[in-house]
Amino acid sequence: MVFSVSAVLLAAADPAAKPAQKLAVPPGAVATAPSTWRFTDAQGNKWIYHTSPFGITREREGAARPITPEFDDVKAVEDGDVIRFEHPTPFGPLRWQTKKPELNEMERSVWNREQARRAGSAAAQE
Fold this sequence. Notes:
- By secondary structure, the protein is α+β, with helices and mostly antiparallel strands.
- It is 25% helix and 31% strand.
- It has two domains: 21-63, no CATH class; 64-126.
- The longest helix has 21 residues, at 105-125.
């Protein structure tokens, strides 16, 4: 057993393996919400950076998120020209807002679902 553990530790300490570079919010990124930044790189790619309990993450701006069962409980509320979203997580509610013309595929689906629910409940009350 000791030999097995030693072999695993030696394999993990492979000198050829490069350490993973930690992601950081680049200088010049613009804060758009608490723990969220937007940044356009030299190639013109637009990125959104977030801080999470696991470190910094990034995703392409406008990248479509798949609609999965975990987004069934996302709530959306209209507030002027923006839609405010709320998604419960184990770390507390995740809240964000997006301007109506900038909704991504997942946000648009959630917003359409909320509008259909409201139309259905309004029709039921009549």
